[in-house]
Amino acid sequence: MRPDLPAIHEIWVYLSGSPLLALILTLAAYQAGVMIYERTQLNPLANPVLIAVTLIALVLAALDMPYATYFEGAQFVHFLLGTATVSLAVPIYKGLPSLRGRLLPLAAALLGGGVTSIVTAVVLARLLGADEIVVGGMYSKSLTAPIAMGVAERIGASPTLTAVFTVTTGILGAALGRFVLDAVRCREWWQRGFAIGVAAHGIGTSRAFSVHPEAGAYAGLAMGLHGVIGAIVIPWAISALR
Amino acid sequence: MIDGLVRILVFQGIGEVVAKFVVPLVPGPVIGLVLLLAYLAWRGEVPEGVALVSAAFMRYLGVLFVPAAVGVVLFWPHLQRQALAIIVALVVSAVATVAASALLAKLLSRGGSDAP
Prior knowledge:
The structure holds 2 protein chains of 2 kinds. Helix content of chain A is 79%, strand content 0%.
């Protein structure tokens, strides 16, 4: 061995102190998630975010790396959430013409769905003995994840729990949605898509797009409008009730 | 593409400032979103750069919330104890939300267009 080469543990100490390791880990885990998701023909249960989070949690445990150290590097990805939220204006703007002539049923579906989402989750979680930290994560779980986490910060809830509940809700809505829609005999594509978008945001929307383009367009619109209106109404309603 | 990113970042910045000093209850990026929406409506079209940046973000939205979601490891023991409450609340709520939303859309559109 050449004497000027550093020992392997020195390389490791250097790398684990740099943001690069967490960045590589985050992107590689997500890439693995996307590959698995595509390999399963876009099955909502093989959600790339869920796979990435599981992989990273396993790696952190194996390396004995604290979450704070990981986040120091991964915060560069995290920062872009706000920018991505702003750029949601584009799909909303493109979807607005779809509201024409259907404003009343869609507004009612959005409002009724939004209220149902919060009330059922919060009441059930409380009844079954969940504590306030868990209940706090339930309020914005049907909003699109970047907005849901912003709302969580404003209402004093944990953005992390909110992110996890939001992704889980999206997966549940995408996986169970069609059975529920068939059970309530909802047949129009635009209504089916919109209901999935209200309940299951981005994950539901990508599911809706894979079933029918009209359903996808309305799901995307529902996700955007629910995000914007929820972000304005939820913190305000909670502070008024406190 | 850079011009689109600049415009989106400027709207984010204005949104954050407005949130900080005027409406602290609403997340800054959401205010930025509403302002960008108003700007697009005023222009009557989506500038090419803005469309490009937005499409890129929408395509890879998922990866952006991975760092925060990994924080679930900190809550793990806490969540395990309340697993039943969490699972039941999330499943029932997702089903109820789809059902409520679909029923309202269906009933109100029937009353509006092809009422007997």
